[in-house]
Specification:
2 copies of one chain form a homodimer.
Chain A (H helix, E strand, L loop, with lengths): L4 E2 L9 H7 L9 H18 L4 E5 L3 H10 L7 E6 L2 H12 L3 E6 L8 H10 L3 E7 L11 H8 L5 E5 L11 H4 L3 E5 L11 E5 L1 H9 L9 H8 L12 H17 L1 H21 L16 E5 L6 H12 L1 E2 L1 E2 L8 E5 L6 H17 L8 H12 L6
Parallel strand pairs in A: 1-10, 3-4, 3-5, 5-6, 6-7
Antiparallel strand pairs in A: 2-8, 7-8, 9-12, 11-12
Helix pairs in contact in A: 1-10, 2-10, 3-4, 5-6, 10-11, 11-13, 11-14, 12-13, 13-14
């Protein structure tokens, strides 16, 4: 028997309570019973997003919602600015190019974050930029962008601001309305700790005006259709949704608010901090060098010379049941990524660090055995974070 | 306590065994464990589709897969023929027009099926037609198209043949390769009796040649990307899939093959026949007049004067826990639809008919009380179908 632990930046661990909701027989998606759940989830998402904007639930991965964020608001030939700090910034560029947008890109070293001043300069230089696309937490590196600062800049330009908050949401505070975020994208399988397969997208009034002028064809991801169906009696989705996922989400959202968002953000911060400090104690280097640019969803760790990253994650998974993630894109084989998103407590972090120590030791890497877990425990005590 | 019964043409009842698989903690979608499930499901779907063609699993409703069937294989301005016999035929037209195709439509009365000879004539008249789109079972009416005959015609023309088999699959035999079906679309939530949120699409060699020339942008539904990822080691999906749905599907497919496809088709046929004959005994008229055009997924019943369809389905659902469907599009309020798809046995049909009798009686409709259930039982005996 090998107990299994999923410690990736998505999918994330799911509580037994949520899995049991997920396993319930399905309601019909056009029934008043489902509409009630659908409205509840929508309202709770608004509370999580801190917005009065419309929010739509899409049955797709987060990438589908990123596509919806591009195809619903622009026209072919429109100029958009993508500040790319990793793999998902690159994905925004690919989607935008695919649908005929002209992409201006601000590329940062992977592990770095976007400089809001660069975005301001780009908007000043090219006043016809119609949209600015940025990740909140960049899942591929663990870096976090200063969305508040960027939002504050973009809101005084004609462009709309599109934020991929898929892995950042729930781990860190995000204030859609206060920060002026026109489009915010989230997913079910990250901090929300529900099963994969559903994504969300919020749309501001400013963005709806862009939607009216958009000439890019879309059908499955047509948000005007989603709005139309959400205003029916009872409210519903245009196409059959992932019913059991939405039902699971309802429970997952309740659990977040029971804990309180402030505590949820605090928990993610301390778990990430403990992971960061623990791996440093093992003599490893963090991929995000500037500690102010480290997000609290996932910790990226550089793999030292002489250790094979693939072999390391394989040993952790196969021999010890602990699944963490490797690097994506150009840092594949160079980093490992340890998530602490969602249904994740202090002892999960201890497990992640212990499994890492055991596997590193097997691969001949020299370090003070046990120093990582000891450091994690110290961080919990120091931050007065013992689940009280 | 009101026991709940879902008897719509989707979502359909799900077995406890499948729900329990669905409730398992999630595997990571890039892990060898999930790849194994993903490959198993793909192979089992090929067995169900009776094909050697590629099959891809998409995380979306069936409509998403219909969109994929349009955007991956044509170019703007291409001429396509849609034979429309109901709401989902209309949807093929809308999707095709949205993405810039020129739609030639063959419209039939709702409740009727397409005449293969009309399709032959259209292909002869317009030799530059690039694709023919047809439903297998038209979910909105319960009629079934003769896909074998149409396939036999289309295969000698340059056009590809696209079949929406979402509600027809599992209820009736479909032979993708033998009948020359280039694109076949299915969904998780119909005959397969798994949760909503995943769709499938098969692609023939002939269709791949069209894919190479297609100029319609697509990203989330890009099937060439899906093919690319399916050929990685281990095989995977380009974007995060609905993991718990795919896991549930694996079990649902096992249950189909344990029963044997022949018996599964026989079961759906007898259940549909019993429903048809039972409602006729109540003096009601079937919406599909020609019995050779009636499918075995869903039975559409015309609502007699003096009975309010919406009130009828409301009473059945609210007072007796039995959810059936009303009419869609232009037959809303005029018909009701009783599904018998998936995890559905003879006593489910008895329940559907009994609930219908009780609700009709409450609404003052005059008929021989109990005649429907008696007739259903007789059909089971007559067809030697008592689960032996």
């Amino acid at each position: 028997m090998i107990k299994k632990y999923i410690m990736t930046p998505g999918p994330t661990p799911i509580s037994e309570e949520v899995l049991m909701e997920h396993a319930k027989p399905l309601m019909h998606h056009r029934s008043p019973e489902f509409s009630k759940v659908f409205m509840e989830v929508t309202e709770k998402l608004k509370k999580l997003f801190k917005t009065k904007n419309d929010i739509f639930i899409l049955t797709s991965s987060g990438t589908g919602a990123m596509e919806a964020g591009v195809t619903n608001f622009f026209s072919r030939g429109d100029k958009v600015l993508v500040a790319s700090i990793g793999n998902f910034g690159e994905r925004f560029k690919k989607i935008s190019s695919m649908f005929g947008l002209e992409v201006i890109s601000l590329d940062y070293e992977w592990g770095d974050a976007a400089n809001p001043e660069d975005i301001k300069k780009a908007l000043d230089d090219e006043p016809d930029i119609k949209g600015v696309m940025v990740q909140f937490s960049e899942t591929s590196t663990g870096a976090i962008n200063d969305i508040k600062a960027i939002g504050n800049i973009v809101k005084s330009y004609p462009a709309i601001f599109i934020v991929d908050a898929i892995s950042g949401l729930v781990a860190s505070d995000l204030r859609t309305d206060e920060w002026g975020l026109d489009i915010v994208i989230g997913g079910s399988q990250k901090g929300l700790s529900a099963p994969t397969g559903v994504a969300f997208i919020s749309v501001s009034e400013k963005a709806w005006k862009f939607n009216e002028k958009s000439d890019i064809p879309c059908f499955y991801f047509d948000l005007a259709a989603a709005k139309d169906y959400s205003q029916k009696t009872p409210p519903q989705t245009p196409w059959t949704p992932g019913i059991s996922i939405v039902v699971a989400l309802n429970k997952a959202l309740d659990m977040l608010f029971e804990e309180s968002l402030e505590k949820v953000f605090g928990r993610h911060r301390v778990l990430a901090l403990a992971t960061q400090k623990a791996v440093e104690k093992l003599g490893l280097k963090l991929f995000v060098k500037d500690e102010n640019k480290r997000g609290f969803s996932v910790t990226s760790v550089m793999i030292p010379d002489g250790v094979n990253a693939k072999e390391l994650t394989r040993i952790m998974r196969v021999k010890y049941g602990v699944t963490i993630a490797g690097g994506q894109g150009k840092v594949a084989g160079k980093i490992i990524r340890i998530g602490n998103l969602g249904y994740f407590g202090i002892f999960d972090t201890i497990i992640a660090v212990a499994a890492l120590e055991i596997a590193l030791n097997e691969l001949g890497y020299k370090f003070e055995f046990g120093a990582g877990t000891a450091e994690a425990e110290k961080i919990f005590i120091k931050n007065n974070y013992l689940n009280d």
